[in-house]
Write the structure tokens for this entry.
Amino acid sequence: MTNAPVIAPLKIADAAAGLRHVFVRDLVLACSIGVHAHEKKGAQRVRINLDLGVYENTQPHQDRLENVVCYEDIITRVRAVAADGHVNLAETLAERVASICLQDPSCHSARVRVEKLDVFDDASSVGIEIERFAAPRARTRP
């Protein structure tokens, strides 16, 4: 009997570091993706999950959308990336998604999972997960 490695639980929200956890779960989009000829003929379903480490404001958010990271804006931008022409690799799509998330000055980190859902009959999905950090910069939100 072998001992399977235990994966540490995801911890992004961190009061001591002043981080919130903003997430998007199970966003399913049609995307032109893949290296094989049959994959270049049409879109296939991908599932995207995002976990963002977002700096908390030094002042209360005052129940105002402009004082937080808007997940609707993030989803709109992810949809645009997925619709922006063919990509060969799930890795490429994940990097592009991470990049657009990190453009928000409040976003410290982005963990992106891209899963192709219809590749194998005997697997629910295949894919990639990456984590990227923003370059050091001054925080711009109050």
